[in-house]
Amino acid sequence: MRVDGYRVDSYHLPLIVDERTTGSTLIQRIAGLVEVQADREILMLYTSILRPRGPGVLWSYGRGAHSIGVGITGGGVQVAGIGDIPPLNWDEFSRDLRLAHCVTNDIHIFSLEGCVQQGFLQQLIGFDWAQPVTPPYESARKIDRLRKALRAILWTSAHPFIVLAGLISLIWLLSRLGYGKQ
Q1: H/E run at residue 11
Q2: Which helix (DSSP H) or strand (DSSP E) does residue 70 occupy?
């Protein structure tokens, strides 16, 4: 695509950020994902899928993202199991747009078809980006703690020999100090 003069955009699940930070590929291997080099990466922070914790996930991951995808408003690609999840209503959608705008100016909406179906397009034309929104600090703190635990697991999966060497060293040290002797 680049050779033909096009910019490459890639849409990512947010967990990929934590995986990349730790040097792991565990999630990609389990989920069958492939990381593609892109000019712009868009994190898919779709709060409709993550209810009721969606806004906290959006805030937690969004603070480090250059580009954010919000949704799902309905329509578009059909994914097994996601069809049963109700799309965002206007209040949820406008909250997500404002939260995303607090952390980036590069916002993507999934999906245009859903916006048309729900009558959101007219409201988007005169959308008031300056209307205040309360960031979900407490929910995001909980997500941040979960992410730290996830990163520990991912780091361990990426560095098993370091973990093993550390355990062997600890066992050796404890045996030298006399622990475990009666």
Answers
A1: strand 9-12
A2: strand 68-71
Tokens 């007219």, residue?
122
Higher pLDDT, 175 or 62: 62
68 and 62 in contact (C-beta within 8 Å)?
Answer: yes
**Backbone φ, ψ for residue 29 (5° rounding):** -70, -40
> How many structural domains compose the chain?
1
Percentage of residues in the chain having pLDDT higher than 70: 95
Q: Are 96 and 69 in contact (CB under 8 A)?
A: no
Is residue 182 in some structural domain? no
**pLDDT value at residue 182:** 59
Using only C-alpha atoms, the chain has a radius of gyration, in whole angstroms, of 21
Distance separating alpha carbons of residues 22 and 138, to the nearest angstrom: 25
Count CB-CB contacts under 10 A for residue 41. 19
**Cα torsion angle, 151, 153, 154, 160, sign:** positive
Instruction: List pLDDT tens digits, range 89-115.
Output: 999 999 999 999 999 999 999 999 999
**Domain assignment of residue 46, yes or no:** yes
